[in-house]
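**Entry details**
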Amino acid sequence: MSETTAPASRAVLELRDLRPDFRLSQLAPHPVNLRLRAGECLQIVTRGWREAAAFADLCEGLVDPFDGTVLMQGLDWAGLPRREAGALRGRIGRTHHRGAFNELAPVGEDILLPQLHHTRIPRPKLIAAAEALCLRFGLPGLPTGLPGEIGEADLARANCVRAFLGHPDLLLLEPPMLTAPDLLPAFLAALTEARDRGAAAICFTRRLDLGDGAVRRSFGGVFSHRSLLGDDGLRPLHLA
């Protein structure tokens, strides 16, 4: 786990006796309690990307639980007016399975869209920040093509740029281990920097051991704790 100067007690994300609505999320309706503090990084092992996406939707207040409470920065998603909820979502960075890009819009515009929609950052300043992140993740600049015109590895890079843009307080991530393994050093560097300034993160993976030795060594002590999301809810796992 990286060192951080952020207050250790501040909860960025908190789930209190949360029971997913199976009809909406397809997640087991078992109570989930989770407190993720500034600088912490939780690994959640899931069976597939759909479970990861459904759990991330709950954390982001996009899907209502059957019961319980989800708090972001101490604010209950259920009680927030639409404008305030949108502003709070502007503090969340998220990667999606295979990008989830709008097939009819240039990828560069899709990268900017969450911040343009949820924040008041001026467009020129946002473009400059996005272009700097593109260079870090191996893109020459903001992609101008449609998703169908761009290779899978570059879409993974764009996915990371969109997630880290705007200095988010919470990151909901699927590490690019399969689509673009060469992205791992830049991904881990960005994640470490985010945690050092006080962001909390959840990394969704399919395996506890993260695959081959090189990937395991890369992640090393990134995770402060680990859990398994399955039929019995979210179950803590011991760090090896």
Remarks:
- The longest strand covers residues 11-19.
